[in-house]
Write a structure and sequence with these properties.
By secondary structure, this protein is α/β, with parallel strands linked by helices. The chain contains 15 helices and ten strands.
Amino acid sequence: MKNIKNLWKYILSGLYLIVIAFVLTSCGRNASSKEVTSDSNAQEVNEEGELKKLRLALTTESNELSGILLIAQQQNYLKEELEAVGYELEVFGFAQAGPAINEAFAGKSIDMAIYGNLPPIVLKSNGVDVSIIAMTDSNLDQCIIVPENSTIQTVEDLKGKTVISGKGTVLDEYFRRVLQANDLDFKDINVVNDVATASATFTSGNADALVTTTIQALLIEKQFPIRVIESTTDSHKELISQLVLVARNEYLQENEEVTTAFLKAYIRGYQYAVSHEEEAIDAFVNDRISHDIAKEVYGNKTEAFSNLSGEITEKWIERLQEVEIFLKENGLIGESVDMKELVNDSYYKEALLEVTK
């Protein structure tokens, strides 16, 4: 009987040691799956089955996608491509646009962003290591509007007036250069720095004019009578701006497959839009943008959506260089920015190759 008791004692001790070893091994696996973010582990989902996050910032009031990215979402391209490498998209809306997104980049609270071409140049000049990896809109028209009954007829008439513009955004460069072309100084204008509530401030009568994008002007016109006194669609076409996809270089180096996967989804969404024009127009329609406005802005071109392909051409690199020179000459940045260090379209080219092969 004593021998049997000793036997059970040894068996139970062995089982206990096996259980402890299993628990420790499992804990070790769980910890490593949460901490590792390198590309070599990008295709792995952690032990709880959770997907990692690709944090994308947009210049919107909400975290809802629109346009090409919405098409990519609706057609399941984003889900397919990102889940294949163990990720999912998390979107953050920044109503304060470029400057707020730059702060988020500096704090490493986002991985990528789609916003105007000016802020990332400022960010790079300030020592934050980012790259422009795609161009999501190469034809972002801008304009200056006034109330329909305003006595202001030309840009020259803005002297001494109150004008709303967004400091540190693409609107800033456009407005300053238009003023220079009309022999006016920025100091000649009472400039109100506003982005998030600019439209409301303008329509409430608290400003004489508003510098904005063409699509935003069309939205305002639906509820408030306006006149356009200057626009890149009629003059100063050289000042047309762009929306760019920007990423932290640290993130790019550690997550090459995730970056390529996201761009593949975008390219597939663009290709779908080109072959399904009428259906794609609806992806630009929301509570604010009507079908007519979406059609006017995105569909009425020689080739619909041609400005949304994502490709970075030499022409648009030159435009980026012009923005950098302007910022430098006007003392708006300190350090010069080398376009070869800012622009990196290798991920886009790799994604395009994988989609079309």
